[in-house]
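U., I forgot to send this yesterday:
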Amino acid sequence: MNTVFYPVYRVIRKLTAPINEIVSLVPVNANILDLGCGRGLIAEEIAKTKEPSGYTGVDLCEKNIEHLQKRFSGFRFFRVDAVEFLKNCINRNDKYDCIILSDMLYLLNDELKRELIESAYTVLSSKGTMILKEAGQNIPLFVQEYISVRILHLTSGESINLREARFYEDILKKLSANYVIINARRLWYPHFIIVVKK
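Result:
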């Protein structure tokens, strides 16, 4: 994203998404994995308040990654598919204290959603925290995302597959994961945050 427009994007995004709520759930001094790190708004807030021991951001957009590498010298960013990244983490036995999946699962089909969450849970350290943030289903949101993803190509994705929190609950129950759901509505956006503890 052009740096001239980033301040406007930041204001709009904070009005329409629970960024502060997500960041408040991130443990201090954690080794963090942010899957679908996007334009780096969550990374920016984490850098200000959480003193992470490590931060790794993963995104498919090359421009996002190039821009983020320039902005955050102490953080690591990779342009790679999140599922492939997690497979490599599992093979290396990498562990993260906090894993964030914010506004990226809706771009995946149901099978990939399950695979991504199961793999992320595998690389979550003992007593780690996983934060899933998605928006529920409604027509204005679907239209907005359709325009953003399919017409303007502002976000990489083949489909728009919005799901309610109970869909993710079913996945987490099969993992025997402990979790809490937080509703965080913004304007017409029915957000929910699922906080998973290992």
